[in-house]
Specification:
The protein is an alpha/beta fold. Helices cover 45% and strands 13% of the residues. The termini are far apart. Bound molecules: zinc ion (ZN).
Length: 233
């Protein structure tokens, strides 16, 4: 078994990917990015997820290594988006929501590869998904596959960019968590991760924390409802 670096943002998808990696790889390290997000609660959520995995999953804890948080403040400075500026979330002229930070995932994966190179980790795991995404072109499988080629050529490596959620929807992501870590993992992800674009930690719903109103909350709520509806009680 080889090692993996997991992009952990503090949301449902990346937390599920981290659990997935812990079942696949002997050595798992995590990376997050501080790029001037409007809310800091996302970064706090990722610490809670790591803490919860270490304390509640003794079979995984020994595999879980160093966590890195990279300062990518410059990305926030050059991006005019609703994630990095105090403005309302809306569709922009080209049909993409103004939560789209151009190049964000390409930059994240490239920085992750630089860290993985140094740490001799061969797999880079992210929660990118083109099944029920917001139309972000850098979440697409083709983008990830092309980037894998570029990184391997440019760094003379054989990295594999794993995207375990690429072809499943949010309800299936909850089911994956249940399969990997049972109710304890579902509960950790439900109660401790934060997917909300506004970083709202004031409102607690059946599906977790969030404003309950933004596109990310709507997607999470819908997925959780569908997961619960189809789960045997
Ligand atoms: Zn929200």
């Amino acid at each position: 078994m080889s090692g993996a670096l997991v992009l952990l943002s503090g949301g449902q998808d990346s937390a599920t990917c981290l659990a997935w990696a812990l079942t696949q790889y002997a050595q798992v390290e995590t990376i997050g990015f501080d790029y001037g997000q409007r809310h800091r609660s996302e970064l706090e959520a990722r610490s809670r997820v790591l803490q919860g995995l270490r304390s509640k999953f003794p079979k995984w804890a020994p595999r879980l290594g160093t966590d890195y948080v990279l300062d990518l403040g410059v990305l926030g400075q050059i991006s005019e988006t609703a994630l990095t500026r105090d403005c309302d979330i809306a569709a922009s002229g080209n049909g993409l929501p103004n939560t789209f930070v151009p190049g964000r995932n390409i930059i994240f994966l490239t920085f992750a590869a630089a860290v993985a190179y140094r740490r001799k980790l061969t797999h880079i795991v992210s929660g990118l998904c083109e099944t029920d995404y917001s139309g972000y072109p850098d979440c697409r499988d083709d983008t990830v596959k092309a980037l894998q080629v570029v990184l391997n050529l440019g760094m003379e490596q054989r990295f594999v960019l794993d995207t375990p959620l690429m072809w499943i929807d949010k309800a299936e992501t909850w089911r994956m968590a249940e399969r990997l870590g049972g109710n304890d993992l579902v509960e950790l992800i439900r109660s401790q991760t934060l997917s909300c674009y506004k970083g709202d930690t004031q409102h607690l719903h059946a599906w977790g924390q969030g404003c309950g109103d933004c596109p990310a909350c709507n997607l999470r709520a819908k997925g959780y409802a569908s997961f619960i509806a189809r789960s045997p009680q």
